[in-house]
Amino acid sequence: MATTSSLLPLIRLQSKIYPSTSPSHRASLPSIEHKLVISGGRSISGHVAISGSKNSALAVLAGTLCCSSGTVALRGVPELLDTRTMAEVLRSVGARVEAEDGGVLVVDASNVWVTEPCSEKIGRIRAGFFVLGPLVARFGKAEVAMPGGCRIGLRPVDLYIKGLEALGAVAELREEKVCVYGANGKGLVGGSFHLTYPSVGATETFMMAASMADGVSVLTNAAMEPEVADLAKFLNACGACIEGAGTSTLVITGRKKLYGAEFTILPDRIEAGTFMAAAAITRSCISLSPVIPSHLTQMTEKLTEAGCKVTQIGSSALEVSAVPEVTGGKLQAFNIKTLPYPGFPTDLQAQCMALLTTCVGSSIIEESVFENRMHHVKELKKLGAEIKLSGNSAFIGGTKPERIALSGGRVRAADLRGGAALVLAGMAASGITEVENIAQIDRGYERFEEKLLSLGADIRRESEAAV
Ligand code: UD1
């Protein structure tokens, strides 16, 4: 049988915003190193438009592979390195992915027949592995390379595999690929599975696979993240029958066939939380929309505890104010322990750490979701932050009356959210801060510096060639 890579030239189709070779795409490729140069100490103001959720879009894009007839029309898919990579993963199994006018991304997976997606693409993003569930449920087999993504811990896939095994699949590791086969060489059958940890990716994989399994499946201790519920909403729009999404128990009645549908991705709560932290760290006032305020409860509570004022405007906007008239000129430190939703999101841990280095008083951040998500500590210290790391807990000294908390310097983004945290720190620091390796940030923030620039930040992108 022909290998996937030999088929790639045949099945790659050009699209307007998801091309393989457009100049704008080339300009953002990780191999060309860019940096952000920030002149700190300025306040920001105005309104910022929040993009569609990266994590929801990635899961939904994988979910399009469940649709064996019709086309899927998606609104709100953010233009990011990660979503582009995911589009390439889909193309590598034969899906047509094209951008149409009005910000609609169309995916036609009806003619998909390849069950071995491009390993190089899967190796770039964690969510690439999500295609495993749809492929094995639809075709009875899938061979998928181990996934990439942020290096923030071991990030095993045992729970994904155990979930599929509960649906009758047989799995083996061969030549660094996870090879999964359906029951009796066919598709999957309904089954029950209890997650020992509410993994987002394992829940999403189980949900997609069980949607096409023969019979009823039950998943307990499921992840409750809004992006998981968004994927369920999408699959249900395509004809699936998933009950309980957003709770810890999912009951899924398998369907023989799912079909295309129109769907809008929910707003990105992590991007919104990052801009909330940007307002706080620069002691500014900004508004943001669209957001789902209930998805930002933890962040709102922490910023309020610090002394900021967070006001809901209508049903889908927030105003965050940290101006001296509101805060009395200083923000108070607060503690964080990251947890699965509805706990404090691990994806906002680094941004809050940057903020805490500018608050009065000491604080503790305990990272309980990933075992190695503190790369930004070393970099924040280069900007003058006082942070002591002990295992997965960071002890943050906070600001002192006699000095400005942070001063500019050269730092390097090691991962997506840590990179965003360094930009926020640079905005608060005195002098110039250079954040290198911003391909990490481009993976998950749509037009990050453009949005910050429009709020009044002094920030520009430079390539190494321009240095
Ligand atoms: C998703 C998000 C990521 C977010 C994370 C937690 C995407 C593309 N990424 O990542 O932004 O930070 O949720 O909210 O949606 N684990 C296992 N075995 C498994 C699977 C996971 O031990 O089979 C562990 C992981 O190592 C980690 C923890 O479970 O320590 C949480 O991981 P998980 O919820 O799966 O996160 P991701 O889906 O990778």
Secondary-structure topology with pairs:
Layout: H1 4-11, H2 23-28, E1 34-39, E2 45-49, H3 54-63, E3 67-69, E4 72-75, H4 81-92, E5 96-100, E6 104-108, H5 119-122, H6 132-139, E7 141-145, H7 158-165, E8 170-174, E9 177-181, E10 192-194, H8 200-210, E11 216-220, H9 226-237, E12 241-243, E13 249-253, E14 258-259, E15 262-264, H10 269-281, E16 285-289, H11 297-306, E17 309-313, E18 317-321, H12 324-327, E19 336-337, H13 349-356, E20 363-366, H14 375-382, E21 387-390, E22 393-396, E23 410-412, H15 416-428, E24 432-436, H16 439-442, H17 448-454, E25 458-463
Parallel strand pairs: 2-16, 3-14, 4-15, 10-11, 19-20, 23-24
Antiparallel strand pairs: 1-24, 1-25, 4-6, 5-6, 7-9, 8-9, 11-13, 12-13, 16-18, 17-18, 20-22, 21-22
Keyword list:
four-stranded mixed sheet; UDP-n-acetylglucosamine1-carboxyvinyl-transferase, Chain; 467 residues; elongated; 2 domains; 17 helices; alpha/beta; binds uridine-diphosphate-N-acetylglucosamine
| Broad shape | elongated
Low-confidence stretches: 1-30
Mean pLDDT, all residues: 90
Q: How many domains?
A: 2
Beta-strand content estimate: 15-25%
Number of strands: 25
What gyration radius follows from the Cα positions, in whole Å?
22 Å
Describe this structure in words.
By secondary structure, this protein is α/β, with parallel strands linked by helices. It folds into 2 domains: 24-51 and 267-463, UDP-n-acetylglucosamine1-carboxyvinyl-transferase, Chain; 54-264, Enolpyruvate transferase domain (UDP-n-acetylglucosamine1-carboxyvinyl-transferase, Chain, Alpha-beta prism). The chain has 17 helices and 25 strands. Helix 15 links the parallel strand 23 and strand 24 (432-436). It is elongated and about 70 Å long. Uridine-diphosphate-N-acetylglucosamine (UD1) is lined by residues 55, 58, 126-127, 153-160, 197, 199-202, 223, 225, 227, 346-347, 369-370.
